[in-house]
Amino acid sequence: MLTRSLARRAAAAVTGGALVATGLLAAGPAPQAHAATESTTADAAATWLTGRLNDQHLLSYQNFGTVSVDVGLSVDLLLGLVATGDDTTADQIAAAVAVKTGEPTGYGRPYSYSDTFNCATFAVEPEAHTYAGDSSNAIAKALAGLTATGLDDTNPAVADLTARLGQVTIDGGADAGRITDSPTRDGAPIPACDYANVFGQAFAVRALDAVGSDEEDAALGYLLSQQNADGSWNEGLRPVGGAQPAANPSTDGTATALVQLQQIDPSAGLAADTQAAIDKGIEWLELTQAADGSFGGTGQFGSNANETGLAGWALGLAGEDDAAASAAGWLAAHQVVRLAGCTTSLDAESGAVAYTDASLAEARTDGITPAVAGEWIRASAQALPALAYLPAGAPALTGPVGYVKAGTAVSVKVAGLPKGAQSCVSGAGPARRLTGSGAVSLSLPAGTRNHTVTLRTLDGTTTTTVKALGAAKLKVKVPARVKAKKNVTVVVTGLAPRERATVTVGAKKVTGTASASGKLTVKVKTTKRGKTKVKAVGQFADRKGKATVRVV
Any signal peptide, and if so, which residues (predicted)? Predict the structure, then answer.
């Protein structure tokens, strides 16, 4: 029996809520898809997520005050791990999901509950009614997940889910190929409570393709028929026996459909139509992507990791490298990254991806508390495949050429990092974090010292040296007397190796460069007789010394 809260969450999965609705992702890449490359940002997210698996290899988190085991979200993680190459953990999750789908009231099983909440009108009625139906979205998702790990119909769970997916797929008429929950209210059909949506339909196409079902063409044809003229998809499907709804584009729905379509091998009769739908959908995504790479900025949720993750994955599979990299960059900038030298209170959560700007800001203050852990797990799971499209960087760190004055601020330049990649610059004054390439200002302490400045990223470290010169009293050695209009030899010691210095004898100045041992010897022609001041100033005014010579 479903509780009221479960029923309402199911309704939310149909009617909206970017973070909730996309509990439906896609399976491993088909030959025509562009696979992601190895990525340390994706690896970090995968490590954090797998650390949240319970002893059954399923994700769990606090939900309305109790611990909830989320099988659907575990499938999301499974699919992300398959996409990024962690087959071992994906197989463990698949085994756990298979067990859950076999339980009498387990994942993907028919539901039945009594409630005063009317799922068709969203009104609370005086008396309770019994609602029942199939869980078509979950059936399709579970089967797509299990087959993504290589399981086939020799596996009892795959065989059972294949049969049940066939049962919830309409066989004929205008709705042929559509999945449906066949919902009832007190035994009578109530189509408005059908929770089947584009996510489940896309999963059904993927799953039917994987098991070689004769129903694949019908399911694929139906999914293609739901594409809007602009290339997008709605979240909802055309009601069974009803009219096609007006376009209400969903980034989640569109991206999920596109990810799925790029991972199947359609029949010859539908191959051209499938590719045309992919091309048109990818074009729509590119037109709706924000300048910062994110998606969702125009919706009720704002830019978020869920929509950006799904869209970035779809773009990456399509070979749209720049757009996919831009989406991955936004995600990487919202990832918790532990970097030596730049410790934060969130270091223990390294790899987690924040849902929104606000989520990240809140966590920096309060941490990832049990109350919000579910949001972080879901956002991270749906960002995981897209993070793999962050381009590999070639980190470079350059500092000022030559000596700089100690106790001042200097700028070092970080180059070669992709957009969104986080780094830590440390080794001279307080450490600084940086996102992407750019310049970092470092406050040097007082004193002469060669500072080794280190740039740390998830990929490793690189260094440069900043040579700082502090105040110094130079030793100036001259003969006691020298004849007028003759050269006086001035020896300055205490300089830094190759430091530039200026020697003044009376009104005459000579500039030179110290030796490797910090010694400068110059000859200056004298003029007037009498006691003459000799001054030496190093590269900075607080590095100086003096002496006197008598000109006779």
Answer: 1-26
Do the beta carbons of residue 455 and residue 397 sit within 8 Å? yes
3-state secondary structure of 303: coil
Distance, in Å, from the CA atom of 544 to the CA atom of 495, rounded to the nearest integer, reads 9
Per DSSP, the three-state class of 530 is: strand
Q: Which helix (H) or strand (E) holds 223?
A: helix 216-225
Q: What CATH number does the domain located at 4-387 have?
A: 1.50.10.20
Domain residue ranges in the chain: 4-387, 396-469, 472-551
Task: Identify whether the C-beta of residue 242 lies closer than 8 Å to the C-beta of residue 192.
Answer: no
**How far apart are alpha carbons 383 and 332 in whole angstroms?**
9
SS (H, E, C) 512-524: EECCCCCCEEEEE
At 52, which amino acid appears?
A: R
Dist CA 350 CA 353 (whole Å)? 9
Q: How far apart are CA 36 and CA 133, in angstroms?
A: 38
Helix (H, G, I), strand (E, B) or coil at 377: helix
* Cα angle, residue 91 at apex, residues 90 and 96 outer, rounded to 5°: 95
Q: Could you check whether 4-387 and 472-551 share the same CATH topology? A: no
- The length of the chain in residues reads 552
The single-letter code of the amino acid at 186 is: D
CATH topology of domain 472-551: Immunoglobulin-like (2.60.40)
CATH superfamily, region 396-469: Immunoglobulins (2.60.40.10)
The one-letter code for the residue type at 229 is A
pLDDT digits (tens, 9 = 90+) for 502-521: 999 998 999 999 999 999 99
Listed in sequence order, the residues at least 6 apart from 497 whose beta carbon sits closer than 8 Å to its beta carbon are 514, 515, 516, 517, 518
Q: In what helix (H) or strand (E) does residue 546 lie, and over which residues does it extend?
A: strand 543-551
Instruction: Give the N- to C-terminal CA distance of the chain in Å, as an integer.
Output: 113
Please state whether the predicted TM-score (pTM) of the whole model is above 0.85.
yes
Tokens matching residue 150: 């290589």
Q: Judge residue 486's burial from the number of C-beta atoms within 10 Å of its C-beta, 0-12 exposed, 13-18 middle, 19 or more buried.
A: exposed
Q: What is the spatial distance between Cα 440 and Cα 432, in angstroms, rounded to a whole number?
A: 7
pLDDT in tens, 157-210: 999 999 999 999 999 999 999 999 999 999 999 999 999 999 999 999 999 999
Cβ contacts of residue 88 below 8 Å, gap of 6+? none
Three-state helix/strand/coil letters over 436-497: CCEEEEEECCCCCEEEEEEEEECCEEEEEEEEEECCEECEEECCCEECCCCEEEEEEECCCC
pLDDT digits (tens, 9 = 90+) for 237-258: 999 999 999 999 999 999 999 9
